[in-house]
Amino acid sequence: MDNILVYSDSVSWGIIPDTRQRMTFAQRWPGVMEFHLNENKHNVRVIENCLNGRKTVWDDPFREGRRGVEGLAQVIEMHSPLHCVILMLGTNDFQDTHDNKASMSAQGVAKLVSVIRSAPIEPGMPVPKVLIVAPLTINNPCGIIGYKFAGAKKRCEGFPQELEKVSNDLGTLFLDANRWVKVSERDGIHLDEDQHSVLGKVIADFLSDNKVLH
After folding, report:
1. CATH fold of 2-209, please?
2. Which parts of 80-132 fold into alpha helices (H)?
3. 164-178 confidence digits (pLDDT tens)
4. 55 has which bridge partners?
5. Which residue range or ranges hold the SGNH hydrolase-type esterase domain (predicted)?
6. Comparing C-alpha atoms, which of 176, 179, 192 is closest to residue 28?
7. What DSSP character marks residue 192?
8. Are 147 and 97 in contact (CB under 8 A)?
9. Which helix (H) or strand (E) holds 197?
10. How confident is the model at residue 140 (pLDDT cuts 50, 70, 90)?
């Protein structure tokens, strides 16, 4: 069995746009991906570690534990052996508590890759492959948390391209989610259920087509 870790934020946690509710595992993209892979004769288990408000390397001044780099090595150790880690982070780096540019957030993702590859796993266990997924570009944030992302559309410009550069430099796999799905019009940040379904199948096919899995 191939264990796949999804390390992400509220987009992958499956928050229903402009609510505080959560989609079921079967509705959110990690669940769709697991079902699609197993249906197509792969033997996989998807482990979700997705936290609302998680950033890459920055602290949140109002909520504890949102610094994605903190504790990541232990998460890798905890769930090893892992075949693949999917990183889909950066959206929250563009909240108005930080004046980050796309290149800065991409370097935050690069730091996460370094931590994954140097985690203290048991001798003989494989260092997992890493897939960087460029998250959806923030567009007209609105609704109950829209105020947190004031100006984020401008700050996150070019983020997928910066992540692709990081991926090329570090030799990871890369997929730009913006090619297949779009953010919900209800909040400009998260995914509607139909887009979760599309993304889960796209990532599943990507892993299969690139022979990432056994």
Report:
1. Rossmann fold (3.40.50)
2. 102-117
3. 999 999 999 999 999
4. 67
5. 10-194
6. 192
7. -
8. no
9. helix 193-209
10. very high
Cα–Cα distance measured from residue 91 to residue 97, given in angstroms and rounded to the nearest whole number: 13
Measured between alpha carbons, how far is 12 from 28 in angstroms, rounded to an integer? Answer: 7
Residue that is written with structure tokens 């550069």 in the block: 165
User: What residues contact residue 30 under an 8 Å CB cut-off, 6+ apart?
Assistant: 6, 12, 46, 48, 50, 200
Interval 92-120: pLDDT, tens: 999 999 999 999 999 999 999 999 999 99
CA 165 to CA 211: how far, in whole Å?
22
The answer to whether 134 and 93 are in contact (CB under 8 A) is no
Amino acid symbol at 90: G
- H-helix segments, 58-190: 72-79, 102-117, 152-155, 159-170
In 10 A of CB 199, how many CB atoms? 25
Tell me if the pTM is above 0.85. yes
Residue with tokens 């998680």: 54
Rounded CA separation 53/63 (Å): 8
Distance CA(204)–CA(98), nearest Å, equals 33
Output phi, psi for 88, to 5 deg.
-135, 85
Q: Residue 86: helix, strand or coil by DSSP?
A: strand
SS3 113: helix
Q: Is the peptide bond before 81 cis (omega within 30 degrees of 0)?
A: yes
